[in-house]
Design goal:
It contains 12 helices and 15 strands. It is of the alpha/beta class. This is Bifunctional alpha/beta hydrolase/OsmC family protein.
Protein backbone atom coordinates (compact mmCIF):
# COMPACT_ATOMS: atom_id res chain seq x y z
CA UNK A 1 0.00 0.00 0.00
CA UNK A 2 1.21 3.51 -0.86
CA UNK A 3 0.95 6.19 1.80
CA UNK A 4 0.88 9.87 0.81
CA UNK A 5 0.72 13.19 2.58
CA UNK A 6 -2.39 15.23 1.90
CA UNK A 7 -2.90 18.89 2.80
CA UNK A 8 -6.03 20.96 2.28
CA UNK A 9 -7.77 24.09 3.51
CA UNK A 10 -9.95 23.52 6.57
CA UNK A 11 -13.36 24.90 7.34
CA UNK A 12 -11.95 28.32 8.33
CA UNK A 13 -9.21 28.49 5.69
CA UNK A 14 -6.40 27.14 7.86
CA UNK A 15 -4.09 24.53 6.35
CA UNK A 16 -4.86 21.02 7.59
CA UNK A 17 -2.51 18.06 7.39
CA UNK A 18 -3.44 14.46 6.72
CA UNK A 19 -2.33 11.11 5.36
CA UNK A 20 -4.03 9.02 2.68
CA UNK A 21 -3.73 5.25 2.99
CA UNK A 22 -4.01 4.05 -0.60
CA UNK A 23 -5.05 0.46 -1.36
CA UNK A 24 -3.19 -1.67 -3.87
CA UNK A 25 -4.85 -1.79 -7.26
CA UNK A 26 -8.32 -0.43 -7.99
CA UNK A 27 -9.92 0.91 -4.78
CA UNK A 28 -13.35 -0.27 -3.72
CA UNK A 29 -14.13 3.21 -2.46
CA UNK A 30 -12.88 6.12 -0.35
CA UNK A 31 -13.42 7.09 3.27
CA UNK A 32 -12.53 9.92 5.66
CA UNK A 33 -11.57 9.05 9.25
CA UNK A 34 -12.27 11.59 12.01
CA UNK A 35 -10.11 11.00 15.09
CA UNK A 36 -11.05 11.09 18.75
CA UNK A 37 -11.00 14.19 20.99
CA UNK A 38 -7.43 15.66 21.13
CA UNK A 39 -6.01 12.40 19.65
CA UNK A 40 -4.82 13.36 16.17
CA UNK A 41 -4.41 11.37 12.98
CA UNK A 42 -1.47 9.41 14.40
CA UNK A 43 -3.47 7.81 17.21
CA UNK A 44 -3.28 4.03 17.44
CA UNK A 45 -6.91 3.57 16.47
CA UNK A 46 -6.79 5.99 13.51
CA UNK A 47 -3.64 4.48 12.05
CA UNK A 48 -4.56 0.84 12.59
CA UNK A 49 -8.11 1.09 11.23
CA UNK A 50 -7.09 3.21 8.23
CA UNK A 51 -4.29 0.85 7.22
CA UNK A 52 -6.43 -2.21 7.79
CA UNK A 53 -9.20 -0.78 5.60
CA UNK A 54 -6.66 0.08 2.89
CA UNK A 55 -5.50 -3.54 2.97
CA UNK A 56 -9.12 -4.47 2.24
CA UNK A 57 -9.34 -2.13 -0.72
CA UNK A 58 -10.82 0.99 0.92
CA UNK A 59 -8.70 4.12 0.66
CA UNK A 60 -8.78 6.34 3.76
CA UNK A 61 -7.86 9.93 4.55
CA UNK A 62 -7.03 10.48 8.23
CA UNK A 63 -6.24 14.06 9.15
CA UNK A 64 -5.59 16.33 12.12
CA UNK A 65 -8.38 18.67 13.15
CA UNK A 66 -7.62 22.39 13.48
CA UNK A 67 -4.83 23.08 15.95
CA UNK A 68 -3.83 19.44 16.42
CA UNK A 69 -0.86 17.51 15.08
CA UNK A 70 0.59 19.17 11.99
CA UNK A 71 -2.55 21.21 11.22
CA UNK A 72 -2.65 24.99 11.52
CA UNK A 73 -5.02 26.97 13.70
CA UNK A 74 -5.92 27.04 17.37
CA UNK A 75 -7.59 24.11 19.08
CA UNK A 76 -10.13 24.77 21.81
CA UNK A 77 -11.99 27.78 20.40
CA UNK A 78 -15.05 26.57 18.50
CA UNK A 79 -16.00 23.19 19.93
CA UNK A 80 -17.36 20.50 17.63
CA UNK A 81 -18.56 23.06 15.09
CA UNK A 82 -15.02 23.53 13.82
CA UNK A 83 -14.52 19.77 13.55
CA UNK A 84 -17.72 19.42 11.53
CA UNK A 85 -16.55 22.06 9.06
CA UNK A 86 -13.11 20.41 8.86
CA UNK A 87 -14.74 17.08 7.94
CA UNK A 88 -16.76 18.74 5.19
CA UNK A 89 -13.59 20.41 3.89
CA UNK A 90 -11.75 17.08 3.92
CA UNK A 91 -14.48 15.41 1.88
CA UNK A 92 -14.54 18.27 -0.63
CA UNK A 93 -10.74 18.14 -0.99
CA UNK A 94 -10.81 14.40 -1.57
CA UNK A 95 -13.59 14.76 -4.12
CA UNK A 96 -11.62 17.46 -5.96
CA UNK A 97 -8.59 15.14 -6.09
CA UNK A 98 -10.68 12.53 -7.91
CA UNK A 99 -11.32 10.36 -4.85
CA UNK A 100 -15.04 10.61 -4.17
CA UNK A 101 -15.73 9.90 -0.49
CA UNK A 102 -18.65 7.55 0.16
CA UNK A 103 -17.93 6.60 3.79
CA UNK A 104 -17.36 8.65 6.95
CA UNK A 105 -15.82 7.00 10.01
CA UNK A 106 -15.69 8.81 13.34
CA UNK A 107 -13.97 7.72 16.54
CA UNK A 108 -15.21 9.09 19.88
CA UNK A 109 -15.96 12.83 19.46
CA UNK A 110 -15.03 12.36 15.80
CA UNK A 111 -18.04 10.04 15.66
CA UNK A 112 -20.34 12.76 16.93
CA UNK A 113 -18.82 15.12 14.35
CA UNK A 114 -19.42 12.81 11.38
CA UNK A 115 -23.04 12.31 12.49
CA UNK A 116 -23.52 16.08 12.21
CA UNK A 117 -21.50 16.52 8.99
CA UNK A 118 -22.80 13.62 6.90
CA UNK A 119 -26.25 15.06 6.30
CA UNK A 120 -24.72 18.00 4.40
CA UNK A 121 -22.55 15.80 2.16
CA UNK A 122 -24.54 14.37 -0.74
CA UNK A 123 -21.77 12.05 -1.92
CA UNK A 124 -21.41 10.35 1.47
CA UNK A 125 -23.55 7.22 1.44
CA UNK A 126 -22.72 5.56 4.78
CA UNK A 127 -21.52 6.49 8.29
CA UNK A 128 -19.73 4.51 11.00
CA UNK A 129 -19.15 5.60 14.60
CA UNK A 130 -16.71 4.03 17.06
CA UNK A 131 -17.22 4.71 20.77
CA UNK A 132 -19.00 7.97 19.99
CA UNK A 133 -20.90 10.13 22.48
CA UNK A 134 -24.50 10.85 21.51
CA UNK A 135 -24.29 14.42 22.81
CA UNK A 136 -21.03 16.31 22.04
CA UNK A 137 -21.35 18.01 25.45
CA UNK A 138 -20.28 14.67 26.95
CA UNK A 139 -16.62 15.73 26.63
CA UNK A 140 -17.08 18.81 28.82
CA UNK A 141 -16.58 16.75 31.96
CA UNK A 142 -12.92 16.49 30.92
CA UNK A 143 -12.54 20.18 31.73
CA UNK A 144 -12.95 19.41 35.44
CA UNK A 145 -12.63 22.30 37.86
CA UNK A 146 -11.27 24.54 35.11
CA UNK A 147 -14.69 24.91 33.56
CA UNK A 148 -15.65 27.59 36.09
CA UNK A 149 -12.43 29.46 35.31
CA UNK A 150 -13.15 29.28 31.58
CA UNK A 151 -16.68 30.59 32.15
CA UNK A 152 -15.49 33.50 34.28
CA UNK A 153 -12.22 34.44 32.55
CA UNK A 154 -12.94 33.31 28.98
CA UNK A 155 -9.99 30.91 28.70
CA UNK A 156 -7.97 28.49 30.84
CA UNK A 157 -5.30 25.85 30.40
CA UNK A 158 -6.67 22.33 30.74
CA UNK A 159 -4.65 19.12 30.78
CA UNK A 160 -6.27 16.39 28.71
CA UNK A 161 -4.52 13.08 28.18
CA UNK A 162 -1.40 14.50 29.80
CA UNK A 163 -1.17 17.45 27.37
CA UNK A 164 -2.01 21.12 27.98
CA UNK A 165 -4.67 22.86 25.87
CA UNK A 166 -6.00 26.41 26.04
CA UNK A 167 -9.78 25.98 26.12
CA UNK A 168 -11.92 29.04 25.39
CA UNK A 169 -15.45 29.84 26.44
CA UNK A 170 -16.52 29.52 22.80
CA UNK A 171 -15.49 25.86 22.94
CA UNK A 172 -18.02 25.19 25.69
CA UNK A 173 -20.76 27.03 23.85
CA UNK A 174 -19.92 25.09 20.70
CA UNK A 175 -20.51 21.81 22.52
CA UNK A 176 -23.67 22.72 24.39
CA UNK A 177 -27.28 22.69 23.28
CA UNK A 178 -26.71 20.92 19.97
CA UNK A 179 -29.85 19.26 18.59
CA UNK A 180 -28.08 15.93 18.27
CA UNK A 181 -31.23 13.78 18.32
CA UNK A 182 -32.81 15.78 15.51
CA UNK A 183 -29.57 15.76 13.52
CA UNK A 184 -29.16 11.98 13.78
CA UNK A 185 -32.84 11.39 12.96
CA UNK A 186 -32.46 13.55 9.83
CA UNK A 187 -29.32 11.70 8.70
CA UNK A 188 -31.24 9.23 6.49
CA UNK A 189 -28.09 7.35 5.58
CA UNK A 190 -27.00 3.83 6.50
CA UNK A 191 -25.40 3.92 9.95
CA UNK A 192 -23.15 1.43 11.71
CA UNK A 193 -22.76 2.05 15.45
CA UNK A 194 -19.79 0.27 17.06
CA UNK A 195 -19.14 0.49 20.80
CA UNK A 196 -17.38 -1.49 23.52
CA UNK A 197 -19.61 -2.52 26.46
CA UNK A 198 -16.73 -1.90 28.87
CA UNK A 199 -15.81 1.54 27.48
CA UNK A 200 -15.02 3.64 30.58
CA UNK A 201 -14.57 6.92 28.68
CA UNK A 202 -17.82 7.03 26.69
CA UNK A 203 -20.37 4.72 28.27
CA UNK A 204 -22.26 2.15 26.18
CA UNK A 205 -25.53 3.99 26.84
CA UNK A 206 -24.40 6.53 24.24
CA UNK A 207 -24.53 3.87 21.54
CA UNK A 208 -28.11 3.07 22.52
CA UNK A 209 -29.10 6.73 22.30
CA UNK A 210 -27.53 7.11 18.85
CA UNK A 211 -29.12 3.90 17.62
CA UNK A 212 -32.59 4.84 18.88
CA UNK A 213 -32.38 8.32 17.35
CA UNK A 214 -31.31 7.03 13.94
CA UNK A 215 -33.65 5.78 11.23
CA UNK A 216 -33.17 2.55 9.32
CA UNK A 217 -31.01 1.19 7.81
CA UNK A 218 -28.93 1.04 10.99
CA UNK A 219 -26.76 -1.61 12.62
CA UNK A 220 -25.03 -2.09 15.95
CA UNK A 221 -21.89 -4.16 16.51
CA UNK A 222 -20.30 -4.68 19.91
CA UNK A 223 -16.55 -4.09 20.13
CA UNK A 224 -16.48 -6.71 22.86
CA UNK A 225 -13.49 -6.22 25.20
CA UNK A 226 -11.86 -3.34 23.30
CA UNK A 227 -10.89 -0.20 25.19
CA UNK A 228 -12.08 3.26 24.17
CA UNK A 229 -8.94 4.13 22.21
CA UNK A 230 -8.81 0.76 20.39
CA UNK A 231 -5.22 0.54 21.55
CA UNK A 232 -4.91 -3.19 20.82
CA UNK A 233 -4.19 -3.84 17.15
CA UNK A 234 -6.42 -6.91 17.01
CA UNK A 235 -9.43 -4.84 18.11
CA UNK A 236 -8.75 -2.20 15.46
CA UNK A 237 -8.24 -4.84 12.76
CA UNK A 238 -11.49 -6.56 13.67
CA UNK A 239 -13.36 -3.25 13.61
CA UNK A 240 -11.92 -2.56 10.15
CA UNK A 241 -12.97 -6.00 8.94
CA UNK A 242 -16.56 -5.38 10.06
CA UNK A 243 -16.62 -1.86 8.55
CA UNK A 244 -15.25 -3.20 5.27
CA UNK A 245 -17.89 -5.93 5.01
CA UNK A 246 -20.77 -3.68 6.11
CA UNK A 247 -19.91 -0.73 3.88
CA UNK A 248 -19.24 -2.80 0.76
CA UNK A 249 -22.74 -2.41 -0.63
CA UNK A 250 -22.65 1.37 -0.24
CA UNK A 251 -19.16 2.28 -1.42
CA UNK A 252 -19.86 1.90 -5.14
CA UNK A 253 -23.57 2.73 -5.14
CA UNK A 254 -24.45 5.25 -7.81
CA UNK A 255 -21.77 3.63 -9.94
CA UNK A 256 -21.30 -0.10 -10.37
CA UNK A 257 -23.17 -0.79 -7.13
CA UNK A 258 -26.61 0.28 -8.34
CA UNK A 259 -26.20 -1.85 -11.44
CA UNK A 260 -25.35 -4.94 -9.41
CA UNK A 261 -28.21 -4.31 -6.98
CA UNK A 262 -30.69 -4.76 -9.80
CA UNK A 263 -29.59 -8.38 -9.89
CA UNK A 264 -30.68 -11.14 -12.23
CA UNK A 265 -33.94 -13.03 -12.42
CA UNK A 266 -33.76 -16.75 -11.49
CA UNK A 267 -32.91 -18.84 -14.53
CA UNK A 268 -31.19 -15.97 -16.36
CA UNK A 269 -27.66 -16.97 -15.41
CA UNK A 270 -25.17 -14.64 -13.76
CA UNK A 271 -24.24 -11.03 -14.30
CA UNK A 272 -20.85 -9.39 -13.79
CA UNK A 273 -19.90 -5.71 -13.83
CA UNK A 274 -16.29 -4.55 -14.04
CA UNK A 275 -15.73 -0.82 -13.57
CA UNK A 276 -13.12 1.18 -15.51
CA UNK A 277 -9.74 -0.39 -16.21
CA UNK A 278 -9.51 -2.32 -12.95
CA UNK A 279 -10.03 -6.05 -12.48
CA UNK A 280 -12.46 -5.95 -9.54
CA UNK A 281 -15.76 -7.45 -10.77
CA UNK A 282 -19.12 -7.57 -9.01
CA UNK A 283 -21.05 -10.77 -9.62
CA UNK A 284 -24.77 -11.26 -9.20
CA UNK A 285 -26.56 -14.62 -9.40
CA UNK A 286 -30.22 -14.24 -8.57
CA UNK A 287 -30.33 -12.64 -5.11
CA UNK A 288 -26.76 -13.67 -4.33
CA UNK A 289 -23.73 -11.43 -4.83
CA UNK A 290 -19.95 -11.87 -4.67
CA UNK A 291 -16.82 -10.36 -6.19
CA UNK A 292 -13.95 -11.55 -8.35
CA UNK A 293 -10.51 -10.00 -8.72
CA UNK A 294 -6.88 -10.73 -9.56
CA UNK A 295 -3.80 -10.71 -7.30
CA UNK A 296 -1.93 -7.46 -6.76
CA UNK A 297 1.16 -8.76 -8.59
CA UNK A 298 -0.76 -8.83 -11.88
CA UNK A 299 -2.47 -5.47 -11.40
CA UNK A 300 -5.53 -6.47 -9.35
CA UNK A 301 -6.46 -5.45 -5.81
CA UNK A 302 -6.76 -9.02 -4.46
CA UNK A 303 -10.20 -8.43 -2.98
CA UNK A 304 -11.77 -11.65 -4.19
CA UNK A 305 -11.12 -14.98 -5.88
CA UNK A 306 -9.88 -15.01 -9.47
CA UNK A 307 -12.15 -16.18 -12.31
CA UNK A 308 -10.27 -19.48 -12.42
CA UNK A 309 -10.70 -19.80 -8.65
CA UNK A 310 -14.46 -19.42 -9.17
CA UNK A 311 -14.36 -22.02 -11.94
CA UNK A 312 -12.51 -24.37 -9.59
CA UNK A 313 -15.07 -23.59 -6.87
CA UNK A 314 -17.85 -24.56 -9.29
CA UNK A 315 -16.17 -27.91 -9.92
CA UNK A 316 -15.44 -28.50 -6.23
CA UNK A 317 -18.90 -27.59 -4.96
CA UNK A 318 -20.60 -29.58 -7.70
CA UNK A 319 -18.44 -32.58 -6.76
CA UNK A 320 -19.41 -32.29 -3.10
CA UNK A 321 -23.10 -31.98 -3.93
CA UNK A 322 -22.98 -34.97 -6.30
CA UNK A 323 -21.33 -37.19 -3.69
CA UNK A 324 -23.79 -36.03 -1.02
CA UNK A 325 -26.74 -36.87 -3.28
CA UNK A 326 -25.34 -40.32 -4.08
CA UNK A 327 -24.51 -41.10 -0.44
CA UNK A 328 -27.99 -40.02 0.64
CA UNK A 329 -29.53 -42.31 -1.99
CA UNK A 330 -27.39 -45.22 -0.79
CA UNK A 331 -27.92 -44.29 2.89
CA UNK A 332 -24.17 -44.25 3.44
CA UNK A 333 -22.61 -42.48 6.43
CA UNK A 334 -20.90 -39.62 4.56
CA UNK A 335 -20.05 -36.89 7.06
CA UNK A 336 -18.02 -34.46 4.97
CA UNK A 337 -16.54 -34.03 1.51
CA UNK A 338 -13.50 -31.75 1.23
CA UNK A 339 -12.56 -30.97 -2.36
CA UNK A 340 -9.45 -29.02 -3.34
CA UNK A 341 -9.15 -27.87 -6.96
CA UNK A 342 -6.12 -26.25 -8.60
CA UNK A 343 -5.68 -25.04 -12.16
CA UNK A 344 -2.68 -24.84 -14.46
CA UNK A 345 -1.81 -25.23 -18.13
CA UNK A 346 0.38 -27.99 -19.54
CA UNK A 347 1.82 -28.70 -22.96
CA UNK A 348 -0.49 -30.91 -25.03
CA UNK A 349 2.39 -33.29 -25.76
CA UNK A 350 2.64 -33.99 -22.02
CA UNK A 351 -1.01 -35.08 -21.84
CA UNK A 352 -1.30 -38.80 -22.57
CA UNK A 353 -5.08 -38.93 -23.21
CA UNK A 354 -5.69 -35.52 -24.80
CA UNK A 355 -6.89 -35.30 -28.41
CA UNK A 356 -5.03 -32.03 -28.90
CA UNK A 357 -1.36 -32.50 -29.85
CA UNK A 358 -0.10 -28.91 -30.15
CA UNK A 359 -0.19 -25.91 -27.82
CA UNK A 360 -1.34 -26.08 -24.23
CA UNK A 361 -4.17 -27.77 -22.38
CA UNK A 362 -5.98 -26.49 -19.27
CA UNK A 363 -5.67 -28.91 -16.38
CA UNK A 364 -7.76 -29.00 -13.21
CA UNK A 365 -6.36 -31.15 -10.42
CA UNK A 366 -9.04 -32.29 -7.97
CA UNK A 367 -8.17 -33.83 -4.60
CA UNK A 368 -11.06 -35.30 -2.62
CA UNK A 369 -11.03 -36.02 1.11
CA UNK A 370 -13.96 -38.03 2.42
CA UNK A 371 -14.96 -38.29 6.09
CA UNK A 372 -17.40 -40.87 7.36
CA UNK A 373 -17.81 -44.52 8.32
CA UNK A 374 -17.17 -45.87 4.84
CA UNK A 375 -15.26 -48.96 3.73
CA UNK A 376 -12.71 -48.95 0.92
CA UNK A 377 -15.19 -50.12 -1.73
CA UNK A 378 -17.63 -47.32 -0.84
CA UNK A 379 -14.84 -44.74 -0.99
CA UNK A 380 -13.73 -46.03 -4.36
CA UNK A 381 -17.29 -45.85 -5.66
CA UNK A 382 -17.61 -42.24 -4.51
CA UNK A 383 -14.38 -41.45 -6.37
CA UNK A 384 -15.99 -42.84 -9.53
CA UNK A 385 -19.18 -40.89 -8.91
CA UNK A 386 -17.18 -37.66 -8.70
CA UNK A 387 -16.65 -37.85 -12.46
CA UNK A 388 -20.43 -37.70 -12.92
CA UNK A 389 -20.61 -34.22 -11.47
CA UNK A 390 -22.46 -32.06 -14.06
CA UNK A 391 -19.81 -29.34 -13.99
CA UNK A 392 -17.12 -32.00 -14.53
CA UNK A 393 -18.99 -33.27 -17.57
CA UNK A 394 -19.50 -29.74 -18.89
CA UNK A 395 -15.79 -28.96 -18.64
CA UNK A 396 -14.84 -32.18 -20.44
CA UNK A 397 -17.45 -31.83 -23.17
CA UNK A 398 -17.14 -29.60 -26.21
CA UNK A 399 -18.18 -26.10 -25.15
CA UNK A 400 -19.50 -23.38 -27.41
CA UNK A 401 -19.66 -19.77 -26.22
CA UNK A 402 -21.84 -17.32 -28.12
CA UNK A 403 -21.22 -13.60 -27.54
CA UNK A 404 -23.38 -10.69 -28.59
CA UNK A 405 -23.36 -6.97 -27.86
CA UNK A 406 -26.32 -5.54 -25.97
CA UNK A 407 -26.96 -2.27 -27.80
CA UNK A 408 -29.14 -1.04 -24.90
Amino acid sequence: MARESFEFDGGQGQRLSGVIENPRGEPRGWAVFAHCFTCGSQSVGAVAISRSLAARGIGVLRFDFTGLGESEGAFGRDGIGGDIEDIKAAVRAMDESGRSVALLIGHSLGGAAVLHAAGDLDGVRAVTTLGAPADPAHVLHLLGDQRDTIESEGVAEVHIGGRPFNIHKGFIRGMENRPWRERIAALRKPLLVMHAPLDDIVEIENAAEIFLAAKHPKSFVSLDEADHLLSRRRDADWAAEVISAWSGRYLTAGNVGDEVERGVEPGEGVRTITQGSGFLSHVRAGRHSLIADEPANVGGSDQGPTPYDLLGAALGSCTGMTLAMYARHKQWSLEQTDVQVSHDRIHARDCEDCEKEEGKVDRFTRTIRIKGKLDSSQRQRLLEIADRCPVHRTLENEIRIETRLDEA
